[in-house]
Amino acid sequence: MGEPGREEYKIQCFDAETQQLLKTALKDPGAVDLEKVANLIVDHSLQDSVFSKEAGRMCYAIIQAESKQAGQSVFRRGLLNRLQQEYQTREQLRARSLQGWVCYVTFICNIFDYLRVRLALPGVTSHCPLQVDCLVLQLHRVGEQLEKMNRQRMDELFVLIRDGFLLPTGLSSLAQLLLLEIIEFRAAGWKTTPAAHKYYYSEVSD
Most buried pick, 77, 99, 123, 139, via CB within 10 A? Predict the structure, then answer.
């Protein structure tokens, strides 16, 4: 798996029993209830933004270990089923906890990044700058890959992003700047020119 220290660090936030369960899942997946493991990882990812950024790597390691050991995909199936359930109640999640919503989107993007699964990413259309920042961050990370998979959906998303930037939606100046930056980032082939980086990120930090 590589980088064992990082793997150990990721699970230190769990209690001792759960840490042991996750360690076993990573080394001997057939010895544990993998659906339970999938639910534990998703539950914690919705609460911990740091863990949600790294959980995709852990999930990938468990899936690889299970496939190598038994040629099965119990964990992957359980994980995707749970994420589909969360997606179906995404509006309630967003209303209940903005932080949980950001963690969910981050986790979905990390799962996509590692597993290349075809999950529908929910649009982030709220006026909250944190949600706009989350959307822009994940588009920087996997936007180009998503566009290659479905250009039409990406075009539709960017129509909404342009509307959010151009129309009087009540967005803050920072949120509008972030939207403009991602519009130009995509237009430049999902790359940031040195001049654009200096302009946008000096603006954001001012």
Answer: 139
